[in-house]
Design goal:
alpha+beta; nine-stranded mixed sheet; 27 strands; 625 residues; Rossmann fold; 3 domains; globular; six-stranded mixed sheet
Length: 625
C-alpha cells in the first residue's frame, strides 16, 4: 500500500488557495446528500458541514480549529477557522455569498440546488480558472491508502464516483487533468503524511498553547550582516559550524540565540542594504519536529526586528558561551531572570565573565557558590553534579579537575575555591585561561540547571527535558590535547545533570583537532557539520558537508573544511607546490629540479613524508638529494 506524498499535498494546498470556500465543504456535502435540483430535501446542512469539516479540516491533533485550504475572499494570513465555523462563517457563505446557488428558506432545514446553481458557482471561480479536481481529491484523501499500482488519475476518478459529480458540473467548474510538477512516483510515499509536515510554514491555532522545551530547527536570513543569504536546519543533537575568520560563525550563533529567545546577546543584527528591502529572518523552534516557520520583519522606525505571529514553541533552557568570556542564559520558568525585551517578558539574562565569577543580583557567582556547595554538600547536591562535570571536562595532561579545600589568599576577604593539580593545590583565580574558561562554563551549566529545578518546583511546573548549549570557538585557550577531548566531554554533560535531559549543541570552531575529536561521537542521523566559505564572486555561502572519518589532524586540515592542502608553514606549502608542478611537467630541466630541491631542503625537515616521493623523482633527473 502507499499514500499521497507530503510534496503532493503541499502542491495541492498551493493550487487550491485561490478558490472559493463553497467548494471546500458545502458543495461536497450537498453532493454526498444527493441534494435535488430545482426542489428541496430535508437535512441539516450546518450539522453535516460540521461533520465534514471535522473529518477533513481538523488537522492539528490538539486543536478544535479547522485549517483553511480554499482562501478566496478572506485575509491571506488567516490560516484557521473557528470551531463554530459551520454555523457562522460557512453559513454566511452559503446564505449570502452564493445564495443564488441554493434553494433554502431561513430557519428551515430544507436545502436544494437552484436550477442555475452551476452558473452561480461558476461566477465564484477566480478569473474563470476551474477548480483542479485532482488537487481537491489530494486534500480530501490525504491520509487514504492506495494500492501500489494506483495512479493519480485513479484519485480523481474516486472523487468523481464517491460524490456523484456529473458531466454537467465538471465541464464548467472543474479541471479533471493531473496538472502537477511532480512525477507519478514522487506523488506517493510509503507512509501517511504527518500533520506537522502538512502544517509546516503555517501559523498555529489559537487554542493550541506554545510547545515547551523547544530547540532550533530552522534558520534562514536574507540581506543581513555579512550574509546575502543563509539557510540552516540544525540537527537535534550536535551541530558544528566551521569557516574562516570574518565569515559569520559568531553572527550565526547570535542569530540562533535571538531565534530561541527573542533578544540579542549584544547588538541587534542590521540589514546590509541601505534601503533595508529584502532583509528578513525566518526561524522555527520546536519540541517535537519541524515547527511552523516564523518571519521577522525589520521596522526602520524602531530599528528592531518584529515577529508578527504568536510563538508556536517556547525554547527550553538555553546557554550561550561567547568567545569574549561573556554568557547568556534563558530559562522559561526562572522568575528571577525575567526582564523585558522585544518579545515583552524575557526570562533570560546576560552575564560578563566578571558577573559569573563574583555574582550579581541574579546569580551568587562561581566564587561564592563553589565554596557554599562544597562546605554544605548535605544541603547542596549541586556540588556532586559540579564535581562530576569538572571530571568529565578535565584536560588530559593535568588529569581530573578535582576541587581542593578553599583557601584565603592575600587581597581577598573570602575563601577562594582551589583545584588540586599534580604539582600542588592552586586557587582558581590563578588558574590558566583555558582552565578558567572551562570551569566557568561547567559552573554556569550546573547553576542554570539547579536554578531551573528550584524555580520549576516553586512554580509547580515540570522540569525541562531539553537544553540548548551554544559555544563560540570551543577550542579557545585550550592546549591541542584538550581540544582533542573537549567536545565529546561537553556532549556528555547532560547525563550528569539528569538522565532525562537532552542537549542540542551549536558549536563554532576553527580547530581541526575539535573536528577529529568528534569522529567517535558524530552520528549522521542526529548531527550536522556546516561550513561557511567566501566564494570568488564575493558572496559568503553556507553548505552542510558530509562528515567523513579522516583519522588524522592533517587529513582534516586538507579537507573541504579547512583547505590547507599541505599542512605546515606557508613556505613549506609553496615549496611542495613547486615540486609537484615540476613533477607534472613533461620535460623538467635539471637546473629547475636542483633549485626546487634546495628549497625543499630549506623548509622541509628530514622526516617529512614528502621526501620519498621527491627523492625518486630528483635522482631520475640527475639531481642527488
Amino acid at each position: 500500500m502507499k499514500y499521497l506524498s507530503i510534496r503532493q499535498i503541499r502542491e495541492a494546498l498551493d493550487k487550491l488557495r485561490p478558490h472559493h470556500p463553497v467548494f471546500a465543504v458545502t458543495f461536497f456535502v450537498m453532493k454526498k446528500e444527493k441534494a435535488p435540483v430545482g426542489k428541496k430535501a430535508r437535512f441539516q446542512l450546518d450539522a453535516l458541514n460540521d461533520e465534514f469539516l471535522k473529518a477533513h479540516y481538523r488537522v492539528h491533533p490538539k486543536s478544535s480549529f479547522f485549517f483553511r485550504v480554499l482562501r478566496q475572499g478572506t485575509p491571506e494570513e488567516k490560516d484557521w477557522n473557528r470551531p463554530n465555523y459551520a454555523s457562522t462563517g460557512l453559513q454566511s457563505v452559503n446564505t449570502r455569498g452564493v445564495a443564488d446557488a441554493f434553494l433554502h428558506d431561513r430557519d428551515d432545514y430544507t436545502w436544494g440546488w437552484s436550477n442555475g446553481y452551476v452558473d452561480a458557482l461558476k461566477r465564484k471561480l477566480p478569473r474563470n480558472i476551474k477548480l483542479p479536481l485532482f488537487h481537491m481529491a489530494v486534500w480530501l484523501y490525504k491520509y487514504s491508502e492506495w494500492e501500489n499500482g494506483a495512479k493519480r488519475s485513479d484519485v480523481v476518478r474516486r472523487l468523481i464516483r464517491e460524490y456523484g459529480i456529473t458531466d454537467a458540473e465538471i465541464e464548467p467548474l472543474f479541471d479533471t487533468s493531473v496538472d502537477s510538477a511532480l512525477s507519478e512516483r514522487d506523488a506517493f510515499q510509503d507512509t501517511p503524511a504527518k500533520w506537522h509536515e502538512i502544517l509546516e510554514g503555517f501559523s498555529s491555532p489559537e487554542d493550541v498553547p506554545p510547545e515547551s522545551s523547544g530547540v532550533l530547527t530552522y534558520l534562514e536570513v536574507d540581506a543581513i550582516g555579512p550574509l546575502q543569504h543563509l539557510k540552516i536546519e540544525p540537527s537535534r543533537r550536535l551541530n558544528i559550524v566551521t569557516g574562516d575568520n570574518g565569515l559569520g560563525k559568531t553572527f550565526l550563533l547570535d542569530l540562533a540565540w535571538w531565534a530561541l529567545t527573542g533578544d540579542w546577546a549584544e547588538r541587534a543584527a542590521w540589514p546590509s542594504t541601505p534601503t533595508r528591502r529584502g532583509a528578513a529572518i525566518k526561524f522555527a523552534v520546536s519540541a517535537t519536529g519541524r515547527s511552523r516557520v516564523q518571519k521577522a520583519k525589520w521596522e526602520p522606525e524602531s530599528a528592531a526586528w518584529h515577529v508578527q505571529d504568536r510563538t508556536p514553541a517556547i525554547s527550553g533552557l538555553v546557554l550561550y558561551a561567547r568567545v569574549d568570556g561573556s554568557f547568556a542564559v534563558w530559562d522559561p520558568v526562572n522568575r528571577v531572570l525575567k526582564g523585558t525585551s522585544g518579545r515583552n517578558v524575557w526570562p533570560g539574562v546576560k552575564f560578563s565573565r566578571e558577573d559569573v565569577w563574583k555574582g550579581t543580583d541574579r546569580i551568587e557567582g562561581l566564587l561564592r557558590d563553589w565554596v557554599r556547595w562544597q562546605e554544605r554538600k548535605d544541603k547542596y547536591p549541586a556540588f556532586n553534579t559540579f564535581a562530576a562535570v569538572l571530571r568529565r571536562v578535565s584536560p588530559p595532561d593535568l588529569g581530573p579537575l578535582v576541587a581542593g579545600e578553599p583557601q584565603r589568599i592575600p587581597g581577598e576577604i573570602r575563601d577562594i575555591p582551589t583545584l588540586v593539580h599534580p604539582y600542588g593545590t592552586v586557587p582558581i583565580v590563578f588558574a590558566s585561561a583555558g582552565i578558567r574558561r572551562i570551569i566557568t562554563l561547567a559552573y554556569l551549566i550546573v547553576w542554570a540547571w539547579e536554578e531551573h529545578k528550584l524555580q520549576a518546583k516553586q512554580a509547580g511546573k515540570r522540569e525541562e527535558r531539553q537544553m540548548v548549549v551554544m559555544i563560540d570557538e570551543v577550542e579557545a585557550h585550550l592546549h591541542p590535547r584538550w581540544q582533542r577531548v573537549i567536545l565529546p566531554a561537553l556532549m556528555g554533560i547532560g547525563e550528569d545533570l539528569s538522565p532525562e535531559l537532552s542537549m542540542q549543541m551549536l558549536v563554532g570552531t576553527h580547530s581541526p583537532l575539535v573536528l577529529a575529536s568528534s569522529e567517535p561521537v558524530f552520528e549522521e542521523d542526529r548531527d550536522s557539520l556546516f561550513h561557511l566559505e567566501l566564494m570568488k564572486n564575493g558572496r559568503i555561502e553556507m553548505a552542510q558537508l558530509p562528515f567523513d572519518l579522516r583519522g588524522s589532524i592533517d587529513s582534516w586540515l586538507s579537507s573541504d573544511v579547512f583547505k590547507v592542502e599541505h599542512p605546515g608553514s606557508p613556505e613549506r606549502e609553496e615549496a611542495i607546490r613547486a615540486a609537484i608542478k615540476l613533477q607534472r611537467a613533461k620535460r623538467p630541466a635539471q637546473e629547475d629540479v636542483q633549485e626546487v630541491s634546495e628549497r625543499l631542503k630549506e623548509f622541509l625537515p628530514p622526516e617529512d613524508p614528502f621526501w620519498p616521493r621527491w627523492v625518486f623523482f630528483a635522482e631520475e633527473h640527475g639531481v642527488e638529494v
